[in-house]
Structure to design on (429 residues):
Protein backbone atom coordinates (compact mmCIF):
# COMPACT_ATOMS: atom_id res chain seq x y z
CA UNK A 1 0.00 0.00 0.00
CA UNK A 2 1.14 3.60 -0.55
CA UNK A 3 2.97 5.20 2.34
CA UNK A 4 0.94 6.94 4.99
CA UNK A 5 1.67 7.87 8.58
CA UNK A 6 -0.39 5.60 10.80
CA UNK A 7 -2.29 6.95 13.79
CA UNK A 8 -4.15 5.33 16.65
CA UNK A 9 -7.26 5.65 14.51
CA UNK A 10 -5.83 3.93 11.41
CA UNK A 11 -3.59 1.26 12.92
CA UNK A 12 -6.41 -1.24 13.40
CA UNK A 13 -7.40 -1.07 9.73
CA UNK A 14 -3.77 -1.66 8.75
CA UNK A 15 -3.52 -4.69 11.06
CA UNK A 16 -6.70 -6.15 9.62
CA UNK A 17 -5.18 -6.02 6.14
CA UNK A 18 -1.96 -7.72 7.28
CA UNK A 19 -2.03 -11.52 7.03
CA UNK A 20 0.44 -12.18 9.84
CA UNK A 21 -1.55 -9.93 12.19
CA UNK A 22 -4.83 -11.64 11.27
CA UNK A 23 -3.17 -14.86 12.39
CA UNK A 24 -1.67 -13.25 15.50
CA UNK A 25 -4.74 -11.48 16.92
CA UNK A 26 -7.82 -13.55 17.69
CA UNK A 27 -9.92 -10.38 17.64
CA UNK A 28 -9.55 -6.74 16.61
CA UNK A 29 -12.54 -5.54 18.64
CA UNK A 30 -10.71 -4.62 21.83
CA UNK A 31 -7.23 -3.50 20.86
CA UNK A 32 -5.54 -1.12 23.25
CA UNK A 33 -3.12 1.12 21.36
CA UNK A 34 -0.62 3.06 23.44
CA UNK A 35 1.85 5.44 21.87
CA UNK A 36 5.32 5.26 23.37
CA UNK A 37 6.39 8.86 23.58
CA UNK A 38 10.15 8.60 24.11
CA UNK A 39 11.24 8.01 20.53
CA UNK A 40 13.47 10.66 18.98
CA UNK A 41 13.20 9.43 15.40
CA UNK A 42 10.07 7.31 15.00
CA UNK A 43 6.54 6.66 16.14
CA UNK A 44 6.20 3.61 18.37
CA UNK A 45 2.97 1.96 19.52
CA UNK A 46 2.25 -0.89 21.93
CA UNK A 47 -0.80 -2.83 20.76
CA UNK A 48 -2.56 -5.32 23.04
CA UNK A 49 -5.73 -7.36 22.72
CA UNK A 50 -7.52 -6.60 25.97
CA UNK A 51 -9.50 -9.84 25.64
CA UNK A 52 -6.25 -11.83 25.28
CA UNK A 53 -3.43 -9.81 26.88
CA UNK A 54 -0.79 -12.28 25.69
CA UNK A 55 -1.58 -11.08 22.16
CA UNK A 56 0.60 -7.98 22.19
CA UNK A 57 3.03 -6.42 19.72
CA UNK A 58 5.02 -3.27 19.14
CA UNK A 59 4.60 -1.33 15.89
CA UNK A 60 7.37 1.06 14.92
CA UNK A 61 7.07 3.39 11.93
CA UNK A 62 9.57 5.84 10.46
CA UNK A 63 8.31 9.21 9.27
CA UNK A 64 10.03 11.47 6.69
CA UNK A 65 11.46 13.76 9.34
CA UNK A 66 13.22 13.69 12.70
CA UNK A 67 10.35 13.15 15.11
CA UNK A 68 11.82 15.11 18.01
CA UNK A 69 12.45 18.11 15.74
CA UNK A 70 9.33 17.90 13.54
CA UNK A 71 8.98 18.47 9.82
CA UNK A 72 11.58 21.24 9.84
CA UNK A 73 14.24 18.50 9.96
CA UNK A 74 13.67 16.21 6.92
CA UNK A 75 14.92 12.64 7.20
CA UNK A 76 14.34 9.77 4.81
CA UNK A 77 11.73 7.31 6.02
CA UNK A 78 13.68 4.55 4.27
CA UNK A 79 15.96 4.49 7.32
CA UNK A 80 13.57 1.88 8.71
CA UNK A 81 14.86 -0.56 6.10
CA UNK A 82 18.26 -0.52 7.79
CA UNK A 83 16.71 -1.35 11.13
CA UNK A 84 14.76 -4.23 9.62
CA UNK A 85 17.88 -5.64 7.93
CA UNK A 86 19.92 -5.26 11.13
CA UNK A 87 17.25 -6.96 13.23
CA UNK A 88 17.14 -9.87 10.79
CA UNK A 89 20.94 -10.19 10.68
CA UNK A 90 21.34 -9.92 14.44
CA UNK A 91 18.50 -12.41 14.95
CA UNK A 92 20.42 -14.99 12.93
CA UNK A 93 23.61 -14.38 14.87
CA UNK A 94 22.21 -13.89 18.37
CA UNK A 95 18.64 -15.25 18.43
CA UNK A 96 18.22 -15.19 22.20
CA UNK A 97 18.84 -11.45 22.40
CA UNK A 98 16.81 -9.99 19.53
CA UNK A 99 12.99 -9.61 19.60
CA UNK A 100 10.95 -11.72 17.16
CA UNK A 101 9.82 -9.90 14.02
CA UNK A 102 6.24 -10.65 13.00
CA UNK A 103 5.88 -8.33 10.03
CA UNK A 104 7.76 -5.65 8.14
CA UNK A 105 6.64 -3.38 5.35
CA UNK A 106 9.30 -1.46 3.44
CA UNK A 107 6.72 0.63 1.56
CA UNK A 108 5.17 1.75 4.85
CA UNK A 109 8.58 1.95 6.59
CA UNK A 110 7.37 -0.04 9.55
CA UNK A 111 8.09 -3.16 11.52
CA UNK A 112 5.90 -5.13 13.93
CA UNK A 113 7.70 -7.18 16.54
CA UNK A 114 7.37 -8.88 19.89
CA UNK A 115 6.32 -6.63 22.73
CA UNK A 116 8.93 -7.15 25.43
CA UNK A 117 6.36 -6.33 28.09
CA UNK A 118 8.10 -8.52 30.67
CA UNK A 119 11.28 -6.53 30.23
CA UNK A 120 12.27 -2.97 31.02
CA UNK A 121 14.78 -0.47 29.65
CA UNK A 122 18.16 -1.05 31.26
CA UNK A 123 18.87 2.64 31.86
CA UNK A 124 15.67 3.11 33.85
CA UNK A 125 16.34 0.00 35.89
CA UNK A 126 19.89 1.09 36.63
CA UNK A 127 18.63 4.52 37.69
CA UNK A 128 16.71 2.65 40.38
CA UNK A 129 19.84 0.84 41.46
CA UNK A 130 18.93 -2.61 40.14
CA UNK A 131 21.65 -5.17 39.50
CA UNK A 132 21.69 -7.60 36.56
CA UNK A 133 24.35 -10.25 37.20
CA UNK A 134 24.18 -11.72 33.68
CA UNK A 135 24.46 -8.42 31.83
CA UNK A 136 28.18 -8.70 31.05
CA UNK A 137 27.80 -12.28 29.80
CA UNK A 138 24.85 -11.42 27.54
CA UNK A 139 26.33 -8.21 26.09
CA UNK A 140 29.75 -9.74 25.51
CA UNK A 141 28.19 -12.68 23.67
CA UNK A 142 26.18 -10.34 21.46
CA UNK A 143 29.26 -8.24 20.70
CA UNK A 144 31.53 -11.21 19.95
CA UNK A 145 29.03 -12.87 17.62
CA UNK A 146 27.93 -9.79 15.71
CA UNK A 147 31.38 -8.24 15.38
CA UNK A 148 33.20 -11.40 14.32
CA UNK A 149 30.58 -12.99 12.07
CA UNK A 150 29.90 -9.86 10.03
CA UNK A 151 33.59 -9.05 9.52
CA UNK A 152 36.34 -9.83 7.01
CA UNK A 153 37.81 -12.11 9.65
CA UNK A 154 34.87 -14.47 9.01
CA UNK A 155 33.05 -13.56 5.80
CA UNK A 156 34.34 -14.08 2.31
CA UNK A 157 35.35 -10.94 0.45
CA UNK A 158 32.34 -10.97 -1.89
CA UNK A 159 29.78 -11.50 0.90
CA UNK A 160 31.36 -8.84 3.09
CA UNK A 161 31.37 -6.21 0.33
CA UNK A 162 27.75 -6.99 -0.55
CA UNK A 163 26.79 -6.53 3.09
CA UNK A 164 28.66 -3.24 3.30
CA UNK A 165 26.76 -2.03 0.24
CA UNK A 166 23.40 -2.99 1.75
CA UNK A 167 24.11 -1.05 4.95
CA UNK A 168 25.22 2.31 3.55
CA UNK A 169 23.11 4.19 6.11
CA UNK A 170 24.07 7.68 4.96
CA UNK A 171 21.60 9.87 6.85
CA UNK A 172 21.90 8.29 10.27
CA UNK A 173 25.67 8.01 9.97
CA UNK A 174 25.68 11.75 9.29
CA UNK A 175 23.65 12.29 12.47
CA UNK A 176 26.22 10.30 14.43
CA UNK A 177 29.12 12.20 12.84
CA UNK A 178 27.48 15.48 13.80
CA UNK A 179 26.10 14.69 17.24
CA UNK A 180 28.86 12.46 18.63
CA UNK A 181 32.04 13.55 16.85
CA UNK A 182 31.51 17.15 15.81
CA UNK A 183 28.95 19.42 17.50
CA UNK A 184 29.82 18.64 21.16
CA UNK A 185 33.41 19.72 20.56
CA UNK A 186 32.73 23.30 19.52
CA UNK A 187 30.06 25.87 20.23
CA UNK A 188 27.43 24.41 17.88
CA UNK A 189 23.86 25.71 18.04
CA UNK A 190 22.51 22.20 18.68
CA UNK A 191 24.44 21.83 21.95
CA UNK A 192 22.69 22.03 25.29
CA UNK A 193 24.45 22.89 28.55
CA UNK A 194 23.39 22.59 32.17
CA UNK A 195 22.84 26.05 33.68
CA UNK A 196 25.53 25.56 36.32
CA UNK A 197 28.26 24.63 33.86
CA UNK A 198 30.61 27.58 33.43
CA UNK A 199 32.39 28.75 30.26
CA UNK A 200 35.56 27.38 31.86
CA UNK A 201 33.93 23.94 32.15
CA UNK A 202 32.97 23.97 28.48
CA UNK A 203 36.32 25.34 27.33
CA UNK A 204 37.96 22.43 29.18
CA UNK A 205 36.88 20.46 26.11
CA UNK A 206 36.44 23.09 23.41
CA UNK A 207 39.76 24.88 23.82
CA UNK A 208 42.08 21.88 24.05
CA UNK A 209 43.75 21.15 20.74
CA UNK A 210 44.66 17.62 21.85
CA UNK A 211 40.96 16.84 22.14
CA UNK A 212 40.20 18.28 18.72
CA UNK A 213 42.98 16.23 17.05
CA UNK A 214 42.02 12.99 18.80
CA UNK A 215 38.32 13.38 18.03
CA UNK A 216 39.13 14.13 14.39
CA UNK A 217 41.06 10.84 14.28
CA UNK A 218 38.18 8.96 15.89
CA UNK A 219 35.68 10.55 13.52
CA UNK A 220 37.83 9.41 10.63
CA UNK A 221 37.83 5.86 12.03
CA UNK A 222 34.05 6.01 12.29
CA UNK A 223 33.70 7.19 8.69
CA UNK A 224 36.19 4.82 7.08
CA UNK A 225 36.53 1.74 9.29
CA UNK A 226 33.97 -0.60 7.67
CA UNK A 227 35.05 -3.61 9.71
CA UNK A 228 31.75 -5.17 10.76
CA UNK A 229 28.02 -4.55 11.12
CA UNK A 230 27.59 -2.41 14.21
CA UNK A 231 24.35 -1.69 16.05
CA UNK A 232 25.31 1.96 15.94
CA UNK A 233 23.43 3.07 19.05
CA UNK A 234 24.22 0.45 21.69
CA UNK A 235 23.64 2.13 25.03
CA UNK A 236 21.63 1.39 28.15
CA UNK A 237 18.55 3.03 26.62
CA UNK A 238 18.62 0.50 23.76
CA UNK A 239 18.81 -2.61 25.92
CA UNK A 240 15.84 -4.29 27.59
CA UNK A 241 16.30 -6.62 30.54
CA UNK A 242 14.74 -8.75 33.21
CA UNK A 243 16.21 -11.23 35.66
CA UNK A 244 17.04 -13.78 32.93
CA UNK A 245 17.09 -12.06 29.53
CA UNK A 246 18.85 -9.21 27.75
CA UNK A 247 17.50 -7.87 24.46
CA UNK A 248 19.11 -5.41 22.04
CA UNK A 249 16.58 -3.14 20.34
CA UNK A 250 16.37 -0.20 17.90
CA UNK A 251 19.35 -0.77 15.55
CA UNK A 252 18.20 1.97 13.18
CA UNK A 253 21.74 3.43 13.13
CA UNK A 254 23.21 0.12 11.95
CA UNK A 255 26.01 0.32 9.39
CA UNK A 256 29.40 -1.19 8.66
CA UNK A 257 31.83 0.57 10.94
CA UNK A 258 34.72 0.11 13.39
CA UNK A 259 34.56 -2.98 15.58
CA UNK A 260 35.21 -0.85 18.66
CA UNK A 261 32.18 1.39 18.18
CA UNK A 262 29.49 -0.70 19.91
CA UNK A 263 31.70 -1.71 22.86
CA UNK A 264 32.78 1.91 23.22
CA UNK A 265 29.25 3.30 23.38
CA UNK A 266 28.23 0.65 25.90
CA UNK A 267 31.26 1.27 28.12
CA UNK A 268 30.82 5.05 27.87
CA UNK A 269 27.23 4.81 29.08
CA UNK A 270 28.19 2.55 31.98
CA UNK A 271 30.84 5.07 32.99
CA UNK A 272 28.22 7.83 32.90
CA UNK A 273 26.06 5.66 35.16
CA UNK A 274 29.05 5.07 37.46
CA UNK A 275 29.56 8.81 37.86
CA UNK A 276 25.84 9.49 38.35
CA UNK A 277 25.48 6.85 41.04
CA UNK A 278 28.02 8.59 43.23
CA UNK A 279 25.12 10.96 43.83
CA UNK A 280 22.09 8.78 43.06
CA UNK A 281 22.88 6.04 45.53
CA UNK A 282 23.58 8.31 48.47
CA UNK A 283 21.22 11.22 47.90
CA UNK A 284 18.26 9.69 46.06
CA UNK A 285 18.25 6.00 46.97
CA UNK A 286 19.73 6.53 50.47
CA UNK A 287 22.27 3.76 50.08
CA UNK A 288 25.98 3.30 50.44
CA UNK A 289 27.25 4.03 46.89
CA UNK A 290 30.08 1.49 47.09
CA UNK A 291 28.25 -1.78 46.23
CA UNK A 292 26.35 -0.50 43.21
CA UNK A 293 29.19 1.52 41.74
CA UNK A 294 31.47 -1.48 42.20
CA UNK A 295 28.98 -3.63 40.27
CA UNK A 296 28.98 -1.12 37.40
CA UNK A 297 32.77 -1.16 37.18
CA UNK A 298 32.87 -4.95 37.45
CA UNK A 299 30.35 -5.13 34.60
CA UNK A 300 32.59 -2.97 32.41
CA UNK A 301 35.61 -5.18 33.11
CA UNK A 302 33.71 -8.44 32.66
CA UNK A 303 32.02 -7.27 29.46
CA UNK A 304 35.33 -6.45 27.84
CA UNK A 305 37.24 -9.47 29.14
CA UNK A 306 34.48 -11.90 28.19
CA UNK A 307 34.15 -10.27 24.78
CA UNK A 308 37.87 -10.86 24.17
CA UNK A 309 37.61 -14.50 25.25
CA UNK A 310 34.54 -15.18 23.10
CA UNK A 311 35.85 -13.26 20.09
CA UNK A 312 39.14 -15.18 20.26
CA UNK A 313 37.31 -18.50 20.52
CA UNK A 314 35.13 -17.77 17.50
CA UNK A 315 38.11 -16.69 15.39
CA UNK A 316 40.35 -19.61 16.39
CA UNK A 317 37.57 -22.12 15.72
CA UNK A 318 36.94 -20.55 12.33
CA UNK A 319 40.61 -20.73 11.33
CA UNK A 320 40.81 -24.39 12.33
CA UNK A 321 37.54 -25.29 10.59
CA UNK A 322 38.24 -23.34 7.39
CA UNK A 323 41.59 -25.07 6.75
CA UNK A 324 42.85 -21.89 5.15
CA UNK A 325 46.21 -22.81 3.53
CA UNK A 326 47.53 -19.38 4.50
CA UNK A 327 47.62 -20.61 8.11
CA UNK A 328 48.77 -24.17 7.48
CA UNK A 329 52.40 -24.31 8.57
CA UNK A 330 54.34 -25.17 11.70
CA UNK A 331 53.73 -22.55 14.35
CA UNK A 332 50.74 -21.07 12.52
CA UNK A 333 48.37 -21.14 15.49
CA UNK A 334 50.86 -19.28 17.67
CA UNK A 335 51.32 -16.67 14.95
CA UNK A 336 47.58 -16.36 14.52
CA UNK A 337 47.24 -15.81 18.26
CA UNK A 338 49.58 -12.82 17.92
CA UNK A 339 47.45 -11.50 15.04
CA UNK A 340 44.31 -11.84 17.15
CA UNK A 341 45.95 -9.96 20.01
CA UNK A 342 47.06 -7.15 17.70
CA UNK A 343 43.54 -6.93 16.30
CA UNK A 344 41.93 -6.87 19.74
CA UNK A 345 44.38 -4.20 20.89
CA UNK A 346 43.24 -2.01 17.99
CA UNK A 347 39.57 -2.62 18.77
CA UNK A 348 40.25 -1.72 22.39
CA UNK A 349 41.96 1.58 21.58
CA UNK A 350 39.04 2.57 19.37
CA UNK A 351 36.52 1.51 22.02
CA UNK A 352 38.26 3.63 24.67
CA UNK A 353 38.19 6.69 22.42
CA UNK A 354 34.58 6.16 21.39
CA UNK A 355 33.61 5.75 25.06
CA UNK A 356 35.20 9.11 25.79
CA UNK A 357 33.37 10.79 22.91
CA UNK A 358 30.09 9.33 24.17
CA UNK A 359 30.68 10.76 27.65
CA UNK A 360 31.41 14.22 26.26
CA UNK A 361 28.52 14.29 23.81
CA UNK A 362 26.03 13.17 26.50
CA UNK A 363 27.22 16.11 28.58
CA UNK A 364 27.67 18.93 26.08
CA UNK A 365 25.64 17.72 23.10
CA UNK A 366 21.92 17.72 22.35
CA UNK A 367 21.12 14.23 23.66
CA UNK A 368 21.47 13.71 27.43
CA UNK A 369 21.14 10.62 29.63
CA UNK A 370 18.49 10.43 32.31
CA UNK A 371 21.11 9.07 34.72
CA UNK A 372 22.35 12.65 35.09
CA UNK A 373 19.68 14.81 33.45
CA UNK A 374 16.93 13.83 35.89
CA UNK A 375 18.91 14.93 38.95
CA UNK A 376 17.01 18.01 40.06
CA UNK A 377 19.80 19.59 42.09
CA UNK A 378 21.40 21.60 39.29
CA UNK A 379 24.61 22.26 41.19
CA UNK A 380 25.09 18.56 41.95
CA UNK A 381 24.26 17.70 38.34
CA UNK A 382 26.88 20.11 37.07
CA UNK A 383 29.51 18.53 39.33
CA UNK A 384 28.68 15.10 37.89
CA UNK A 385 28.96 16.51 34.39
CA UNK A 386 32.39 17.95 35.16
CA UNK A 387 33.52 14.51 36.26
CA UNK A 388 32.12 12.95 33.10
CA UNK A 389 33.96 15.51 31.00
CA UNK A 390 37.23 14.80 32.79
CA UNK A 391 36.94 11.02 32.36
CA UNK A 392 35.81 11.40 28.76
CA UNK A 393 38.65 13.75 27.92
CA UNK A 394 41.28 11.40 29.33
CA UNK A 395 39.87 8.46 27.41
CA UNK A 396 39.91 10.46 24.19
CA UNK A 397 43.39 11.97 24.46
CA UNK A 398 45.15 9.02 26.15
CA UNK A 399 43.52 6.13 24.28
CA UNK A 400 46.77 5.12 22.58
CA UNK A 401 48.53 4.79 25.94
CA UNK A 402 45.73 2.97 27.78
CA UNK A 403 46.60 -0.71 27.51
CA UNK A 404 43.94 -2.49 29.56
CA UNK A 405 40.35 -2.21 30.72
CA UNK A 406 41.66 -1.95 34.29
CA UNK A 407 43.42 1.29 33.33
CA UNK A 408 40.04 2.65 32.22
CA UNK A 409 38.65 1.74 35.63
CA UNK A 410 41.63 3.37 37.30
CA UNK A 411 40.92 6.63 35.50
CA UNK A 412 37.25 6.52 36.51
CA UNK A 413 38.00 5.83 40.18
CA UNK A 414 40.75 8.43 40.34
CA UNK A 415 38.45 11.11 38.97
CA UNK A 416 35.36 9.93 40.85
CA UNK A 417 36.40 7.82 43.88
CA UNK A 418 34.26 4.82 44.70
CA UNK A 419 33.51 5.70 48.29
CA UNK A 420 32.69 9.39 48.19
CA UNK A 421 29.94 11.55 46.77
CA UNK A 422 31.74 13.29 43.92
CA UNK A 423 32.48 16.99 44.23
CA UNK A 424 34.77 18.02 41.40
CA UNK A 425 36.55 21.17 40.45
CA UNK A 426 37.71 20.50 36.93
CA UNK A 427 39.81 23.33 35.52
CA UNK A 428 40.51 24.09 31.93
CA UNK A 429 44.05 23.18 30.95
Amino acid sequence: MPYEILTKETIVDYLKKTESMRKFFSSFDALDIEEVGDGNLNFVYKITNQKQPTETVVLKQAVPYLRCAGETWPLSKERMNFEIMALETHKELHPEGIPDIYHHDKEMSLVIMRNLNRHKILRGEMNQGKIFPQLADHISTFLARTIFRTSDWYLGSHDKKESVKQFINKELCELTENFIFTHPFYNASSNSYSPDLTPEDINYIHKDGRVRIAVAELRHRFKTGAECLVHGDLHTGRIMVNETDTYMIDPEFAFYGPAGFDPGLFIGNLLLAYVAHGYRQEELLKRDPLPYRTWILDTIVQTWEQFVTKFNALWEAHIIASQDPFWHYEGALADHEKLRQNTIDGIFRDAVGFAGCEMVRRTLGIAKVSDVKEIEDTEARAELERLSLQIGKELITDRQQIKSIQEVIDIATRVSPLTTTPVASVKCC
About this structure: Residues 120-415 form a domain with the Aminoglycoside 3'-phosphotransferase; Chain: A, domain 2 fold (CATH 3.90.1200.10). The CA atoms of residues 264 and 351 lie 4 Å apart. The chain is about 50% helix and 15% strand. The chain has two domains: 8-114, 120-415.
